[in-house]
Amino acid sequence: MTEVATIVDIVRLKEQGLSQRAAAKRLGISRTTVSKYWNGTTKQLIEPRYNRRPQLIDPYRDYIISRLEEYPEYGPPSLLTPLPLLKEYPSYPHRHHQ
C-alpha cells in the first residue's frame, strides 16, 4: 500500500506541471502507482475500502454506552479487574489438587 505522504507528493508534482513519467522517476516509484493516484480524489484517501465487520457487542453497544455514561465510576478500568466475589459462591467451580 502506498503511503499517504507519497500520494501527497504525487498530487504536488502534478500541480507543479510534471508528467506522470517524470513524477514516477523523481519519486522512485512505478508509473502505474503514479497513474493510480494521479487523478484520485481525497475521498479515496479518507474513506476505507472495506466495511466494518459486525461484532458480537453491536446489539448491546447503545445500552453499554448509556450505562457507562450514567455510572462513570464503572468505566473500562474497573471492567478489566477480576471479580473477587466469585470465590464466595459455593457453586463456583474450583479445581482441587490432590
In a few lines, what is going on in this structure?
The protein has helices at residues 4-15, 20-27, 31-38, 42-46, 61-70, 76-79. It has 98 residues and is mostly helical. It has a domain at 4-46.
Question: Could you explain how this protein is built, in words?
Answer:
- The model has no long low-confidence stretch (mean pLDDT 76).
- The chain is elongated.
- 48% of the residues lie in helices and 0% in strands.
- The chain is built from 6 helices and no strands.
- The chain is mainly alpha-helical.
- Helix 1 packs across helix 2.
- Radius of gyration based on Cα positions: 27 Å
Regions with little confidence, pLDDT below 50 for 5+ residues: none
Largest sheet: none
Number of helices: 6
Nearest-integer average pLDDT: 76
Overall SS class: mainly alpha
Cα end-to-end separation: 57 Å
Order of helices and strands: HHHHHH
Helix content: 40-55%
Fraction in beta strands: under 5%
Which overall shape is indicated by the principal axes computed on the Cα atoms?
elongated
Task: Please report the total strand number as a whole number.
Answer: 0
